Amino acid sequence: MQKLYDPYKKYRPYFLRWDGSIILHAFPSVFIATIISGIVCLLYERCNINLSISATLTPVLSIVVGLLLTYRTNTSYDRQGRRLWSKMIFAIRGLVRHICINIDSKSNVGSLEQKAAINLLIGFAFSTKHYLREEGTECDDLKPFISSISIDTPNFVPLTKQVAKVIEKEKKKQNLGSKAFKWVKRKFKSKKQKPKNYNLPLAISLYLTSYVDKQFKNNIIDQPTANLLYINLNTLIDCLSGFERILNTPIPLAYAIHLSHTVWIYCVSLPFQLVSTMHYATIPVVLIVSFILFGIEEIGEEIEDPFGYDDNDLNLDHICNVIKEEIQVTTIKKRVENQLFDNDRIIPSEAILQPSGSSTFDRTLYEIETRIR
């Protein structure tokens, strides 16, 4: 269950926290490595079987494992996706600001179109969240904002089918002899049918683009304003493409397998190098070292896909709700009138025409400060 992070709240020390840790994920591997070290110690101490090897292997493997784990964690963190969400929020705020200020909505039709466009911007955020989680378009928090458009988009290929086609092509190239078992896989997959995951954010962007194009052709907005709106719309599509890149491009399988093999070789060979000098103390040492190494490996895997519901994933529900609430609060107020920034509302004309005496000048400054406050 994801929890909202409060920067002003004092939390327990990280050393004492359980939620969000990788202890349970790393426990099986750590347990096996510890059992192996215990067996090596018993054979060496009780059975007088000398299984010790030279400790020169430890420094070499330590450097290799450290480099591999560092690259794995950094690569996974670069895929975290928070920057793209901030970029998308920036574009949505810019679009809402320009639509509310630069597009007149004096007629009833124009007002309805403006409200529909703003709702579609909120719907873009929610639809992107569900699209990345492959939850389809039939979601309760999404329906109120896309009620003005049709979501029946058969031309858009679901994300699951896009990935399935690529995987199927690769399997045909590599596993030509596994055709007899494909019907079993198809029947197994048919039981787990996911909701249709159409690319609804892309469909919403098409509606928003047509809305901007209509306003420009009707001379409601000028060319610079239209360019700003198009730039923000392109930013939304850029963010969507970045999300798809993170979702559909995992860490190379060969690298992940080689990293796992390297960590296992290091942890399994460690008790053979330490048992002659540390004896039974080898067991807790291997326990600690294996927990650190397997934990770092699990962290890289944990943060690789940041769009789910795990504790270490992005809290997309909170991000989308913040976008919705701030846009709704902002658009409730009427359009800011030019009279608010009229010079006479800040500095009265009679104060400007008065002579520049010291008392008059002080009184005028006091009135200005009072009005500004």
TrEMBL record:
Primary location: membrane
GO-annotated molecular function: chloride channel activity
Protein's name according to its UniProt entry: 28390_t:CDS:1
Pfam families on file: Bestrophin_2
Subcellular location: Cell membrane
Keywords on record: Cell membrane, Ion transport, Membrane, Transmembrane, Transmembrane helix, Transport
Membrane topology field: Multi-pass membrane protein
GO cellular component term of the entry, any: plasma membrane
Organism domain of life: Eukaryota
InterPro entries: YneE/VCCN1/2-like (IPR044669)
Organism name: Dentiscutata erythropus
